[in-house]
Design goal:
Residues 109-501 form the SLC26A/SulP transporter domain. Residues 547-634 form the STAS domain. Keywords: Membrane, Transmembrane, Transmembrane helix. The protein is of the alpha/beta class. Helix content is 55%, strand content 8%. It has 27 helices and 12 strands. Helix 4 (104-131) packs antiparallel against helix 17. The chain starts with a strand and ends with a helix. Residues 1-33 and 35-70 have low confidence and may be disordered.
Length: 662
């Protein structure tokens, strides 16, 4: 027979331990709340004393015989049937849940939000292509198919799938100027990695990127992006992907500054910042009813601020057109191919490029080697960006990281078939999406339609857009990504977290981004391991109800391999110094491993050799099973404070019998 507890299993069907648990009862019908290891010399006699007290866990027990065992095949069938349900289908294809309830009010909200975000994404896509080191059309290619795919699989209505500043910079550092073919292949594998992670439920991996690491990374990215756009504001040539390298090249070419680009760029930055402030202005009382004029005026200011990027692009495009007479004093983005991109798979067979007037074939394996760690880092950062949006606009609802991985993974895979670079959810566009009144992910359809119309009809106009205007749009946006506001609270809260954030920030500035964030994550893991290796332990000298003194030692967390020697040395030192019975309070020990079990075995032997009583109080059955796997001698666990005197008397009786035998 297998003795099992309903809330957690004391001894499972696979458990080889035979320690008596709480099944014994005294003659008076009182339940047992202590047990001993069967290898203990006293285990021939059950503890008959005890009191009916509250056990810290459920008291409901059931007995299972051998008939309770289940075959593997029925178990697999049960698991499969539990997964292949209507609920799971609706969870993995969210459009099935909201589409039947779609109404006119939702359609109006989605159309307004989709068009507003479309006006924002077109100039951003052109600008982000420059960050990625690609021709401007590649940003537009990644702004429509992915947004449409996200409609069916996305779980957050506010996420505007498309190119972002961070994904563009990661693309630039991954492809290292090797051309669009590498960017398209990176897009496919970014989506593939994200999709596979979603299938296997690996969304928890972003939990290893803590707040300080994320803040340091985001702030460093903002400065790198800003730096990369300074060259377009000045009109100089400054290649490089690392912060220090870019500034070095800027100063080397500073004498070639184009005054036209500089003046236009600075003017655009000022106008964009002013329009941002104007959009936050409101007339009328802060509390109370607004008049129709006040509502209309406030909405007009908001719309003006929201469309500021599009307004700047249109105005500067006309300026570029007016100044163009075969040549232009401004640096223009140049020709953008008209029409939609051809639908074709990424270059899995490699591609051909021209080197020194010779056509050279670059095989697929070499392309993968060139992309290196970008294939791993880019998907994780894309998920981090998207989850940040979901959390910001979730209104307290749980966020399904697994579903978001599936959604953005499929979106990036689809984007790779239309020559796009990796994308994700953009927080700035998400804020506009939300404030525009988006109701469902269908708003992405109207954004995609607007981008398609731009590719079909407006590409001739793009020729005259100055690069300085696009650089100004990026700079005016990314300066607010530098998270200066978190420094003071982080300093007041926990200084080690600020140190972690600063280290990540510096590492991302002086090293490639993927290396910098790995440095931050590595430091974070070291901090976690250090805290795990040095648990807080309280030591108290207490007295039982019969005036017997004992030492209560209470660790505050689980016992795993980094902390075992530290705990053992501390327990040994204080137990020898005090020379009285020792009780280890295990209430906070929710997990243990094999190393901890070997240490417990050693400690119990040491105490037995010194004839010093040692007891474990309130040890969780799952942890006890780990310890008993090595069958430690004199391993005694109890769950009732009042039983300590009985256990001490029993230990003393054992000691007396041993002395008499001697």
């Amino acid at each position: 027979m297998v003795f099992q507890k309903k809330s957690f299993q004391i001894h499972s069907e696979d458990d080889n331990n035979t320690a008596r648990d709480l099944q014994g009862e005294s003659g008076g019908g009182r339940k047992m709340f202590a047990y001993e290891n069967p290898s203990l010399s006293l285990s021939g006699d059950s503890l008959k004393t005890g009191s009916t007290v509250d056990f810290q866990g459920s008291r409901d027990f059931i007995f299972q015989g051998n008939e309770g065992k289940k075959d593997t095949l029925p178990w697999l069938k049960q698991k499969a049937s539990s997964k292949l349900t209507k609920k799971t289908l609706y969870k993995r294809i969210p459009v099935l849940g909201w589409a039947p309830k779609y109404d006119k009010a939702a359609a109006v909200g989605d159309i307004l939000a989709g068009v507003t975000v479309g006006l924002m994404v077109i100039p951003q896509a052109l600008a982000y292509s420059g960050i990625a080191g690609l021709p401007p059309q590649y940003g537009l290619y990644g702004s429509f198919i992915g947004a449409i795919v996200y409609i069916f699989f996305g779980s957050c209505k506010d996420v505007p799938m498309g190119p972002t500043a961070i994904s563009a910079l990661l693309t630039f550092q991954s492809i290292k100027g090797m051309g669009p073919e590498h960017a398209v292949l990176l897009c496919f594998f970014t989506g593939l990695v994200q999709f596979v992670m979603g299938i296997f439920g690996l969304g928890f991996l972003i939990d290893f990127i803590s707040g300080p690491v994320s803040s340091g990374f985001t702030s460093a990215v903002a400065l790198i992006i800003l730096t990369s756009q300074v060259k377009d504001i000045l009109g100089v040539h400054a290649p490089g992907s690392v912060f220090t390298e870019i500034w070095k090249n800027i100063f080397q070419d500073i004498h070639n500054t184009n005054a036209w680009d500089t003046c236009l760029g600075i003017a655009c930055i000022i106008v964009l910042l002013v329009m941002r402030v104007v959009g936050q202005m409101k007339i009328g009382p802060s509390k109370g009813e607004l008049s129709s004029f006040q509502k209309c005026f406030n909405k007009s200011l908001w719309l003006l601020a929201t469309a500021r990027n599009a307004i700047i692009v249109i105005v500067c495009g006309f300026i570029g057109y007016a100044l163009y007479d075969g040549t232009s004093p401004l640096t223009l983005i140049g020709a953008v191919p008209a029409g939609l991109p051809s639908l074709q798979p990424p270059p899995f067979g490699g591609y051909n490029r021209i080197e020194n007037n010779t056509e050279v074939h670059v095989p697929f394996v070499e392309m993968m080697a060139n992309l290196s760690t970008g294939i791993i880092v880019t998907p994780l950062i894309g998920l981090l960006e998207t989850i940040a949006i979901c959390k910001a606009f979730s209104d307290g609802k749980p966020v399904d990281a697994t579903q978001e991985l599936i959604a953005i993974g499929l979106a990036n895979i689809a984007n790779s078939f239309v020559h796009a670079f990796p994308g994700a959810g953009a927080l700035a566009r998400a804020a506009v999406n939300n404030s525009s009144g988006v109701k469902t992910p269908l708003g992405g359809l109207y954004t995609g339609i607007l981008v398609i119309l731009a590719l079909l009809f407006f590409t001739p106009f793009f020729y005259y857009i100055p690069k300085a205007a696009l650089a100004a749009i990026i700079i005016a946006a990314v300066i607010f990504m530098v998270e200066v506001r978190v420094v003071k609270p982080m300093w007041r809260s926990k200084k080690s977290d600020l140190f972690l954030g600063v280290c990540t920030f510096v590492a991302c500035l002086v090293l490639p981004l993927e290396v910098g964030i790995l440095v931050g994550i590595g430091l974070n893991v070291l901090f976690i391991l250090y805290h795990a290796a040095r648990p807080k332990i309280s030591i108290e000298r207490l007295t039982t109800s019969r005036n017997t003194e004992y030492l209560m030692i209470t660790p505050d967390r689980c016992l795993i391999f980094p902390s075992t020697d530290y705990v053992r040395n501390l327990v040994t030192k204080h137990s020898i110094r005090q020379g009285i019975p020792v009780v280890i309070d295990c209430s906070h020990i929710y997990g243990a491993d094999y190393t901890a079990a070997t240490v417990v075995e050693t400690i119990t032997k040491d105490f037995a050799l010194r004839n010093q009583p040692l007891f474990f109080y309130n040890l969780k059955p799952s942890v006890s099973a780990v310890f008993e796997g090595l069958s430690p001698q004199d391993f005694v666990v109890y769950y009732d404070h009042d039983q300590l005197d009985d256990l001490l008397e029993k230990q003393n009786a054992k000691k007396t019998d041993t002395n008499n035998i001697v």
